């Protein structure tokens, strides 16, 4: 008899034996009860482990949320400090800029006053030096005149008018000796010449400007007004 035949007999006879034999019934119940408890305890142990893991996760999530909250609060605090620092820095920069602007204005005024005075002295020195070169080397006479324009013909208001006159072989030439000359200087020079002609009832033969620095915008004006330009004293020899 093999195993399958034994199982078939047991499956056929066991129900009747359990109903009629108390000892067999108790044995089967004990076996079933022990087997059930083992599975039940295993399930409970698994559920307990899962509950513990879930609890650990909840605690971990709570710690992460707390840390994130602290991190966000710290970041916001640092941002506030940074903004306050930038504001203070901007205020200091603005204050320094205003102080520098005041100093610049103060020293610019002082330098401007010195430069203005030096400009008058250098212009006079230039005119005197050029006058000496012309008289010593080219057999001409340079006469400086200073007359009062009480009608304001030249400057639009009463003022002194200074002119340099060159006399060469009886020819009357009025010149402007300047270290630099601009477009407006050309117009003023032409009015000076007309002022001289009106006051002295004499016709000027030539109008010349002698200057090493002539503004490019002044050159077309000079050509229109009939003013000759010389950039050095040596060129005057051609007069």
Secondary-structure map with pairings?
Layout lengths: L2 H18 L1 H116 L3 E9 L9 E10 L2 E7 L5 H18 L5 E5 L7 H8 L1 E4 L9
Parallel strand pairs: 3-4, 4-5
Antiparallel strand pairs: 1-2, 2-3
Give a verbal description of the structure.
The chain is α/β, with parallel strands linked by helices. Among the domains are: about 1-30, no CATH class; about 140-239, Trna Endonuclease, Chain: A, domain 1. Helix content is about 65%, strand content about 15%. It has helices at about 5-20, 20-135, 185-200, 220-225, and strands at about 140-150, 160-170, 170-175, 205-210, 225-230. The protein has a five-stranded mixed β-sheet with strand order 1-2-3-4-5, sandwiched between helices. Helix 1 crosses helix 2 (about 20-135) and helix 3 (about 185-200) packs parallel to helix 4.
Defining key terms:
single chain; 239 residues; alpha/beta; Trna Endonuclease, Chain: A, domain 1; 5-stranded mixed beta sheet; 4 helices; 67% helix; 15% strand
């Amino acid at each position: 008899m093999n195993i399958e035949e034994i199982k078939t007999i047991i499956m056929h006879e066991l129900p009747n034996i359990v109903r009629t034999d108390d000892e067999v019934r108790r044995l089967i119940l004990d076996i079933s009860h022990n087997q059930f408890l083992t599975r039940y305890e295993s399930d409970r142990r698994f559920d307990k482990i899962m509950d513990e893991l879930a609890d650990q996760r909840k605690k971990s999530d709570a710690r992460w949320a707390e840390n994130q909250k602290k991190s966000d609060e710290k970041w916001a605090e640092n941002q506030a400090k940074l903004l306050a620092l930038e504001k203070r820095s901007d205020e200091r920069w603005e204050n320094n800029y205003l102080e520098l602007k005041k100093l610049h204005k103060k020293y610019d005024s002082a330098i401007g006053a010195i430069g203005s005075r030096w400009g008058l002295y250098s212009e006079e020195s230039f005119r005197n030096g050029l006058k000496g070169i012309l008289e010593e080397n080219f057999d001409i006479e340079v006469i400086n005149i200073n007359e009062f324009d009480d009608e304001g013909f030249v400057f639009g208001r009463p003022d002194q008018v200074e002119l340099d006159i060159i006399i060469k072989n009886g020819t009357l030439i009025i010149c402007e000796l300047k270290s630099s000359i601009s477009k407006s200087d050309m117009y003023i020079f032409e009015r000076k010449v007309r002022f001289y002609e009106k006051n002295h009832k004499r016709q000027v033969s030539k109008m010349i400007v002698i200057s090493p620095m002539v503004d490019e915008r002044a050159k077309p004006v000079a050509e229109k007004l009939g003013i000759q330009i010389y950039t050095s004293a040596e060129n005057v020899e051609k007069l």
